[in-house]
Design a protein that fits this description.
single chain; alpha/beta; seven-stranded mixed sheet; two-stranded parallel ribbon; 4 helices
C-alpha cells in the first residue's frame, strides 16, 4: 500500500525539499510524517480564517464550487523548495491554488505528492510543468 515512507522515496528521487506543505485536511495525514522522516518542517495550508497570524489568501474554483485557502506569511522562507501533499488530484484546482500561495511566498514547488489521481479529469494539465508523484 501507499504510505509516507513510499512518498519520501518518490520525493528524494527528484531532490530533497526544504519543507513539506500539507493541504487541509487529508494532506495533514501523511504530510507531517513525511516531513518528520525527511527531518524538515511541515507547513499547513488551511481553509480561510483558521490560521492564527497574518496570511496570504487565495480563492479558487473546485469541481463543485469555490473555496479559499490561507498560508501564514512567515511560514516559508524565500526560495524554499517545497513539496505539496494532498490525497487526490482531480481537476487540479486545489493543488494549483496551493502552488499559487507558495508563489506568493516566493517558495519553489518542486513537486505535488498525491495518493490518488482521477486521470479523466485531466488535473495534470492545470499543474503544467510541476511533477506529480505518488
Amino acid at each position: 500500500g501507499i504510505n509516507a515512507e513510499y512518498g519520501v522515496d518518490q520525493i528524494t528521487v527528484i531532490g530533497k525539499p526544504d519543507v513539506i506543505i500539507g493541504i487541509e485536511a487529508r494532506g495533514f495525514l501523511i504530510g507531517p510524517i513525511m516531513a518528520q522522516q525527511l527531518k524538515i518542517p511541515f507547513v499547513p495550508i488551511r481553509k480561510k480564517g483558521k490560521l492564527p497570524r497574518e496570511c496570504y489568501s487565495i480563492k479558487y474554483e473546485k469541481e463543485y464550487g469555490f473555496d479559499e485557502f490561507d498560508i501564514q506569511i512567515d511560514a516559508l522562507e524565500r526560495g524554499a523548495k517545497a513539496v505539496i501533499v494532498d490525497d487526490l488530484l482531480a481537476t487540479g484546482g486545489t493543488l494549483d491554488a496551493a502552488k499559487m500561495l507558495c508563489d506568493k511566498s516566493n517558495a519553489e514547488v518542486m513537486a505535488h505528492c498525491v495518493i490518488f489521481e482521477l486521470e479523466f479529469l485531466k488535473g495534470r494539465e492545470k499543474l503544467k510543468d510541476t511533477p506529480v508523484i505518488f
